[in-house]
Amino acid sequence: MNKKEALFVRNTVKITVAVAAASAVALGASACSAPSDTTASSDKGDKNAPLVVAASPTPHGAILDFVKNKLAAKEGLKLVVKPFNDYKIPNKVTDDGQVDANFFQHKPFLDTFNKENGTHIVPVQNVLIEPLGVYSKKIHKLSELKSGSTVSVPNDPSNEGRALKLLADNGVITLKPGVGSDAKLTDVKDDKGVKITELEAAQTAPRIDDVDAAVINGNFAIGAQLKPSKDALALEKAKDNPYANFLAVKKGNENDPRIKKLAKLLNSPEVKKFIEDKYKDGSVIPAFGPAKG
Questions:
Q1: Which of 32, 157, 178, 229 falls between 20 and 30 A from 184, CA-CA?
Q2: What's the first-to-final CA gap in the chain, in angstroms?
Q3: Model confidence over 144-168: pLDDT tens digits?
Q4: Are 219 and 84 in contact (CB under 8 A)?
Q5: CATH 3.40.190.10 domain residues, the chain
Q6: Could you tell me if residue 207 is left (phi over 0), alpha (psi between -120 and 50 degrees) or otherwise beta?
Q7: Residues bearing covalent lipid (S-diacylglycerol cysteine) (predicted)?
Q8: Residue 40's pLDDT band (cuts 50, 70, 90)
C-alpha cells in the first residue's frame, strides 16, 4: 500500500467513526424525546396510557393524589397529576391536548372561559364545593370597613360576581335590584365609600396585606394556610351553591374509559371520607353527581 492509498484508508475510517458517533447521538436524542408517562394520550387513541390531569394543587391535586395512591390501581387506572397555580392554563392545555382532563373550576367560570377563548371544554363529574370567603389581616369584623377601606376581589367574571354578591349579602356594598352572582362592578349601586380592587384570583391571598380585606377562593385560602371556618369574616353558604368544582375534558373525550373510571373514583365513598377528614374546617365540601353541560 502506497502513501496515497494509506491516507485514503485512514480518512475512510475517520468518516465511518464520525457517522457512527452521529448516529448514536441521534438515537440517544430520539430516545430522550420519546413520549413520557406525562404525555396526554386521549388524541392518540391509547386508552391504556396514563391519564394526565391538570389541577389546582389544593384541594384538587391533593384529592387526585389520594385517588392515584389509594384507589386507581384497583381500577387499572394510571394517573398523572400536573399542578397549576393558575386559572387559565389548565383549560388551554386540556383544549390543545397537552393533558387529558382538568379539575379546578366551576360551571360559571368554564362558560365564560370557553366563550372568551374559543375553547371546547365540558364538565363531566361534580366533586366538591369550596365556599368563597372574606379574609383580612387588618380587621376582625366586616363592620370595621369604612369609607376609604379597600377590598380586593377576583377579576375573572364569574368569581368577581360571586364575590360582589358575598359582599352585598354581608352589608359591605349594595347591588342594583335583581342582580345576583352575575354582578359586575357597574352593578354596584352603593359602595359605601369602600374601594373595590380587582386582582387575579391567585393573587388575592398573597396580596392580602395590601388591602383591608380580600375575597379569596377556597383553594387559594387553603394554600395560604387560612382556615375558612375560623379565619373568614364572612363565608359563602354551601347549601344550594351552584359553584361545584368538577372533572372536565375537551368535548368528545367524555366517553374515554379512563375518564369514566376517574369520575367514578372521584365520587366514591373513600373520596368523600378523605375530603371530610382532611377538610374538617368546612373549607371543602363533597358535592357528588353528574355535572351539567
A1: 229
A2: 82
A3: 999 999 999 999 988 999 999 999 9
A4: no
A5: 51-131+241-290, 133-235
A6: alpha
A7: 32
A8: low
Q: Please state the rounded mean pLDDT for residues 13-17.
A: 40
* Right CATH for 51-131+241-290 from 3.40.190.10, 3.40.50.360, 3.30.540.10, 3.40.1280.10: 3.40.190.10
Calpha distance 271→70 (Å, rounded): 10
- Confidence grade of residue 180 (pLDDT, cut at 50, 70, 90): confident
The pLDDT of residue 41? 54
Q: Give the pairing type, strands 101-105 and 245-250.
A: antiparallel
3-state secondary structure of 81: strand
Which own/partner contact pairs does 164-172 have at CB distance under 8 Å and 24+ positions apart?
Answer: 164/188, 164/196, 166/132, 166/133, 166/134, 166/215, 166/234, 166/236, 167/134, 167/215, 167/234, 169/234, 170/134, 170/142, 170/234, 171/142, 171/143, 172/134, 172/142, 172/145
The values of phi and psi at residue 102, to 5°, are -145, 160
CA distance 134 to 225: 14
CATH code assigned to 133-235: 3.40.190.10
Cis peptide bond N-terminal to 269, omega within 30: no
pLDDT tens by residue, 271-282 = 999 999 999 888
Instruction: At 253, list the grid cell.
Output: 373525550
Bridge partners of 267, per DSSP, are: none
Per residue in 98-141, pLDDT (tens digit) is: 999 999 999 999 999 999 999 999 999 999 998 899 999 999 99
The answer to whether residue 34 scores a pLDDT higher than 70 is: no
DSSP code for 151: E
Neighbours of 57 (CB within 10 A): 17
